[in-house]
Every structure is written in structure tokens, then in C-alpha cells.
């Protein structure tokens, strides 16, 4: 199944600071930063501590790139909710159309209701006969 970290994403849909973070540290690290620090300011150290929360969040290599680029600065990390929601919706549609994942499975995977998944898909997903059979 596709995940946010390995999905095709149009970086231009992200807020400008997340776009810059993608250039500096890559998409997975940027998404991890948005997930951990989204909506807050983060002080980037001049000297990176391998035991820091930044390293724990994005890994040593990505944290080193971020520390080198933003050395000693305080940066605002946006949540990127709208862009990530749009990406999630594309992933849901792809999994449903190409991989045959059911609306129920998609709802559980993405923390949504089946009705929300159907709204995202823009269609009424037919209920399979097997799903209607109840054991007595």
C-alpha cells in the first residue's frame, strides 16, 4: 500500500518553508518535521547533538543537512494540512482504483469513516454481498 512518505507528491503544493525543507533534507524528513513540529517555531542548533529531538525525528543525515542550512536560526515549520490532505485523498483514490482496497480498509488505514472515504472517492461504493451476510 502507498504511504505519504513514498507517494508521488507535487512539492509545489506544499507551503514554501516545507518546499525549502524538501530541497534541503528530502521529502520523508520534511513530512516528519511537519508531523512533529507543524505549526511551531523550531530553533536549529549551530552544533548538532546526535541525541537531539531533531535527530530522533528526521535521522542524523537529514538533521545534519538541516543544521548546516539553517545554522542557529529559528524556523517556522508549517503543518501543511491542506497539501497533505490532498495527497492523502489522491492516495486513497489510487489504492481504491488500482489496488482494489475496500472503502472499509481505507477508512481504518487513514483514520476516517467509510462515509468520508466515499466522499473522497466521489462515488457511492457498492456494498459487496459478502459484507451483508451476517452470522447467526
Structural write-up:
By secondary structure, the protein is mainly α. It folds into two domains: 11-79, no CATH class; 82-132, no CATH class. Helices cover 57% and strands 6% of the residues. The protein is built from eight helices and two strands, in the order ααβααβαααα. It has helices at residues 16-25, 27-37, 53-58, 60-70, 81-99, 103-110, 114-121, 129-132, and strands at residues 40-43, 74-77. A two-stranded antiparallel ribbon has the order 1-2. Helix 1 packs across helix 2 (27-37) and helix 6 crosses helix 7. The longest helix has 19 residues, at 81-99. The radius of gyration is 19 Å and the shape is elongated. The model is unreliable at 127-136 (pLDDT under 50).
What is the strand and helix layout of this fold?
Layout: H1 16-25, H2 27-37, E1 40-43, H3 53-58, H4 60-70, E2 74-77, H5 81-99, H6 103-110, H7 114-121, H8 129-132
Antiparallel strand pairs: 1-2
Helix pairs in contact: 1-2, 6-7
- Tell me the structural class: mainly alpha
Continuous helix count: 8
**Approximate helicity band:** 55-70%
Oligomer: single chain
- H/E order of the elements? HHEHHEHHHH
Low-confidence stretches: 127-136
Number of domains: 2
Mean pLDDT, nearest integer?
85
